[in-house]
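User: Hi! I'm working on a homework problem where we have to compare a predicted structure to a textbook description. Could you give me the structure for the chain below?
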Amino acid sequence: MLRHSVAAVLALFFLASVALAADKEVKATVVKVDVKKKTLTVKTDEGEKTYTISDDTKFIGPRGGASDKGIEDDRLVKGAEIKLVIAGNNRTVHEVHLPERTKK
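Assistant: Happy to help. Predicted structure tokens:
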């Protein structure tokens, strides 16, 4: 009986750690883009946060196409509404979903 209880507790801890490490989607407003440092500062419901952009980060347009310019995309400007897919470490961005281009 004790062995089953210990196994159940260990399984619960494992499932909790997997849930915490999962990617999450965040809707945000761009505050600052730092191309040299490869960081993106955004404002969310939880406040302002700076995320790291890696070489593996995907930049996706509103119709599903990939952006060739990455962090230098002209849609990634202050005030733009974007969606981010954040890694389980809560620091690195896996995907940036860009808005439509504004007409000038």
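For your comparison, note the following. The chain has a mean pLDDT of 84. The chain has one domain: 23-97. Good luck with the assignment!
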